[in-house]
Amino acid sequence: MKHLLTTEGMTAEAATAVLDTASELKHTLLGREVRKLPTLRGRTVITMFYENSTRTRVSFEIAGKWMSADVVNVSSSGSSVGKGESLRDTALTLAAAGADCVIIRHPASGAAHRLAEWLEESGTSVVNAGDGMHEHPTQALLDAATLRERLGDLAGRRIAIVGDVLHSRVARSNVHLLTTLGAQVVLVAPPTLLPAHVDRWPVEVSHTLDAELPSLDAVMMLRVQAERMHGGFFPSAREYSIAYGMSERRLALLPDHAVVLHPGPMLRGMEIAAAVADSPRAAITQQVSNGVHVRMAVLYHLLAHEEEVA
Question: Can you tell me which residues bind carbamoyl phosphate (predicted)?
């Protein structure tokens, strides 16, 4: 694996290999007082985040450091980007400085793919940490890792993705990955928050959350991305919560084994009730924890796996 840019087109074998590696790394570190592995010693990993982030940025940094890589953070406000430098020139500068891997989050869809094209000759790997409304592949992988821990094999499992699907790169990456792993995905959202081309996706579509809950193995609540909305996509926050929020009443409609996910940050009281978010049925903090191990696995497959096989 040279880059990780998307889950679209990723084979089940490749995804399973990353998930299995993440599980092995998690068990390797379990109980260790010093959570350090020498796997990426001498490697340099650079994070470039042009959008705000807590979970993704921190977990990539921790993942790199737990693998003994040198991790350098670059932000648009503290770099030459603030002086007008182009993304291409910034990327080439980082590669010339010795970056083995560049992790990028950018507001423009396709930015990670362009970065990979520009850095092809340098040999630097690129990881997409979220590009506009396109994809967020490591989030989908950590969601799958969490679902595997809670449910076992995902083949045949029925999983709902609920809310602002239109603006969600998390939803897109999960649709591609979960269906590849054999899950049945149903999108639950108002018509205004579904993409125009949703009929091309291998999913079911529903506008009524209550009707879907009794048949679900997992429900993934999405953040309402107000910063990407220009116009009225639903009447009010209260009406959205009534129709599509995960309340305690709705939690009771789920089968006993079903799990609730949320990529964060959560709008408590609108997308998900506080009592649900803090319930043992929810795996939200488990997602964050698994995010570190999944991103360790991604860095391993990008920077170390081929050398170890050789």
Answer: 55-56, 105, 136, 139, 264-265
| Domain ranges across the chain | 12-134+288-309, 137-284
Q: What are phi and psi of 187, to 5 degrees?
A: -95, 125
114 is annotated as contributing to ligand binding: no
Residue 169 assigned as binding residue: yes
The answer to whether the annotation marks 105 as part of a ligand binding site is: yes
Q: Which residues, given as ranges, of the chain have pLDDT below 50? A: 309-310
> Could you confirm whether domain 137-284 is CATH 3.40.50.1370?
yes
The reply to whether CATH 3.40.50.1370 applies to domain 12-134+288-309 is yes
Distance CA 144, CA 230 (A): 32
Q: Is 264 annotated as a binding residue?
A: yes
**Is 223 annotated as ligand-binding?**
yes
